[in-house]
Amino acid sequence: DLFVAMVEHMMPLHKANLEHLRHSWVYYWRPPRGVASSACWVSRQVSCLGRLFGDCLTQPLDDVATYFGEKVAFYFAWVEMYTKWLVAPVVVGIFLFVQQVQSASLDQPLAPVYALFMAIWASLFLVAWRRRANSLAYRWGVLGYEEDDEVLRLAFRTSATSGLTWKRWLKYTVTWSIVVGCIALVLTIMFAAFTARDRLQDESVSIQNNVTATLQDHELTLSTLSSIHDVLTPRFWFYCLVMPMLYGLCIPVFDIAFTWVATTMTTWENHATESAHQSALILKVFPFRCIHVFATLYYYAFAAQNNLLRVAIQLATFMLSGQMWNNVVKTGLPLLRRRYQLHRKRRATSKLLETDVRHLGGGVAAGGGKGLSSVTARANHQCLRLEHATSEVWDECNMYPYDTFEDYTEMLIQFGYVSFFSIAFPLAPLLAFVNNVVSLRVDAFKLCHTTQRPRADKASGIGIWFPVLQMMSVVAVITNCLHVAFTTTQIEQYVPAISPSTKVWVVFVAEHVVVAMQLWIAFVVPAMTPDIAAKARLERAFAKRATASLVTSFHRSSCHELDASDVELVI
């Protein structure tokens, strides 16, 4: 309790080599430091532009791993590779978008081909990332690092029974029941709001069509006017405008509340290591966010009219406004908050110091030597507070702590946009590519300028996020098959007499074939490149030989230390 009362912050501080990392990572387009250039101003600017665009997907990952730890470095390595792999969907998506513009229709014959391409692309990307992650893990010396190698969490209650006992299973049952209940509540609210709005919009369109037909016949009856009055009531405007706005405003509130509930439940589950704790929290929070983000798009795609157009408009809105706003929030708001807090603290401390100095003479006159000592002590204390307020250490303490969870969540939701719904808006990969190029440097700026230095945690990959990506790739296959069958009309154009039940069977078989292809690719392609696998085998052999030699030496030394009196001969 005394330790908790006295310690405000416990964190690693930034070092002097942060400036080098800032220059090579955040401001990578600037000329190298300490290198004099005799070129003219125009040549220097052209060189900077060349580095700005030519090196936009190049990062000093080794320096990031050394300074911030492998856990943070793996996030940036994954985003870098994901952005590079977006080039192929960008090219194919632009081609499909041109076809849509030329034909003035979103429903294109190439849609099934594009859906198959995106499914195979997602599978190949995950296989390639697995090989890349193992190569980086070997280079950084964390290949084979497992959760069992970690130390226990400080918040872990050692008195609790370890392992999956019936008490732990009971906790899991309670927590996951709450998670499923929250997801069901959000889905119910969303479905009720949007179905009511669509029903009233359909009634309004029907009334408008009747009025148009009546005016053309020059017969406007009393029943027609009554039907218009019945539809265009305050209830109509409430469901059409107010309900969607309330739903949009409530989602952030639900998100904050559910994150707090999930954090409390995960702490109650009492996981032994930090990785297990984070994985359990991710498996609760990320599905909730995916549900309330993707639910609207799924509703527009499969439960509404004009589905392709609605999905395209909604997806473009999410990717243009949402991602740009996230980049502004991640950098601008913490920077403004930091400067405002620093200015306010310095100003308040300076005023207190001026007040103490002004009353110094009065205190001395009233109390003599005792007054002098007390006022001097107070003045020294205020000077110390002023020094704290102006120090870099105190400045770092007032920054937000950094966690990769929000960044991973943003990127995986974008991965869902691209792999789930880009068949309706083929420019989604292009918007994702541009956003990621900017986000790489925005996140680097955030780490180097506006957040506390995170603890350098070890990791051999992206952790629980990789199984989540694998699951999302399977969902992408199912979603794209459903798009081809029910969102587009391509199957009817090839087979006009197909029945709905036959269409369902076609989707079922196609989805299973593509998923089987994904599993086959993941099984056939090795997890490591041949050179990394050979080096890893060689190191394991050396380690095994060294361990055997150490054990043999220990046994020999123990036998030499035995005395004759320690040996008992039994006949």
Per DSSP, the total helix count is 20
Mean pLDDT: 78
**Helix/strand class:** mainly alpha
What form results from the Cα inertia axes?
Answer: globular
- Counting copies of identical and different chains, the oligomeric state is single chain
DSSP summary, beta strand count? 0
- Contiguous low-pLDDT stretches (5 residues minimum) are 1-5, 564-571
| Percent strand | under 5%
Number of domains: 1
How does this structure look, described?
- This protein has helices at about 1-5, 20-25, 40-55, 60-70, 70-85, 85-105, 110-140, 165-215, 220-230, 235-270, 275-300, 305-360, 360-390, 390-395, 405-420, 430-450, 465-485, 490-495, 500-525, 530-560.
- The protein has about 575 residues and is mostly helical.
- It has one domain.
- Residues about 1-5 and about 565-570 have low confidence and may be disordered.
